[in-house]
Amino acid sequence: MSNNKRAVIxxxxxxxxxxxxxxxxxxxxxxxxxxxxYGQETENKEYECAKALAEEVDATDFLHIETGHxxxxxxxxxxxxxxxxxxxxxxxxxxxTSYVPFRNANxxxxxxxxxEANDCSAVFIGAHSEDFSGYPxxxxxxxxxxxxxxDVGTKPDTEIELVAPFVEWSKTDIAERGLELGVPYEITxxxxxxxxxxxxxxxxxxxxxxxxxxxxxxxxxxxxxRSAFN
Length: 230
Fold this sequence. Notes:
By secondary structure, this protein is an alpha/beta fold.
C-alpha cells in the first residue's frame, strides 16, 4: 500500500463534483477521476469539462466509462428522448423527472471497483442536501447503507471510506467552499438540457445560479437566461 492517500472521485463535470475534487485534495488525497457517460443529454459537454478539470489539477488518473444501460432502461428525462426536461419548481416535493433510477448505486459500484483496483482508501461523491430532498439515492441513509455494501463486498484487507462531504450542505454552502478553494467553475457544466449556452431554467441551472447569487458571486459560465427562481 502506498503511503500517499488516494481517492476516487466521481466527477460529472458539474460544480458539486468539481468542489469535491478540491475538497479531497485539500484533505491530502491524490485524485483519481471517474467520469461516466450514460446517455445523458449533455454528455459531450460534461466529458469535456471533466477532462479539463483533470488537466487543471493534474489528476493522477482519469477513467472515462461509457455505459448504455441507464439510458436503455430509461424513465428519466436526462436519458429518455420521449421525456421533457422540466423547468425548475422550487416548491415541488415530488421526485423530479430528472431522477435516473438508482443511478448513484451504479456509479458508486464502478467507483469502488476502481478504488479497490488502485489501492485507494476513499471514494468521494458531491451529493448534497438539496439533492436528497428530490433524489432518494442522495440521502445520508443511502450512503450509510452503501458503506456497508463496500465493507462486506470487498477483500478483507480492503478499507475504502465512502465520503460525501457536502451531504448536509446547501448548494450555496458548496459554492462558498469552492470559491474559497479556488475551484475553476468556468470549466464546469450543470445544465440538464443544453451544451451551450446553459438554459438557465432547468432544475440544475436554477439551483446553481441561486447558489452563486447567495454566495455573492457571478456564475462564470454562459446562460441563455439568468433568471433562476426570480
